């Protein structure tokens, strides 16, 4: 099988619809539907639709979900409160009435 078109795609930074179609093994009409539905990451230059290969690779690795740069969530750090002394929290002893 001739893989020359895949070698060309591997060294390319920008791709057009037909290159993405071959790269993902789907029809061009499917790519156009995905672009129209904003399902696949793309850029428009006038009427032309271009794709950044790195974004397509990330999209595939994320199971078809476009991941935007999200703010980093701070790591969980438990809050340790000082325990009050036992004097204040000691229960009164129970003494049955005599």
Concise synopsis of the structure shown:
It contains five helices and three strands; from the N terminus they run αβααββαα. It has 98 residues and is α+β, with helices and mostly antiparallel strands.
Beta fraction of the residues? 5-15%
CATH class category label of the domain at 4-67: Mainly Alpha
Cα-based radius of gyration, to the nearest Å:
30 Å
Oligomer: single chain
Number of strands: 3
Largest sheet: 3 strands, antiparallel
The CATH topology annotation of the domain at 4-67 reads as Multidrug-efflux Transporter Regulator, Chain: A, Domain 2
Helix content: 25-40%
> Biggest sheet: strands side by side, in what order?
1-3-2
Instruction: Give the number of helices.
Output: 5
- Average pLDDT figure: 79
The 3D shape can be described as: rod-shaped
Q: Which residues sit in consecutive blocks of at least 5 with pLDDT less than 50?
A: none
**Structural class based on helices, strands and sheet pairing:** alpha+beta
Rounded to the nearest angstrom, the distance between the terminal CA atoms is: 99 Å
Strand and helix order: HEHHEEHH
Explain what the structure shows.
The protein is about 40% helix and about 10% strand. The chain contains five helices and three strands. It has helices at about 5-10, 15-25, 30-35, 55-60, 85-90, and strands spanning about 15, 45, 50. Strand 2 (about 45) and strand 3 form a beta hairpin. A three-stranded antiparallel β-sheet has the order 1-3-2. The chain has a domain at about 5-65: Multidrug-efflux Transporter Regulator, Chain: A, Domain 2 (Orthogonal Bundle), CATH 1.10.1660. It is rod-shaped and about 95 Å long. The chain is an alpha+beta fold and about 100 residues long. Helix 2 (about 15-25) packs across helix 3.
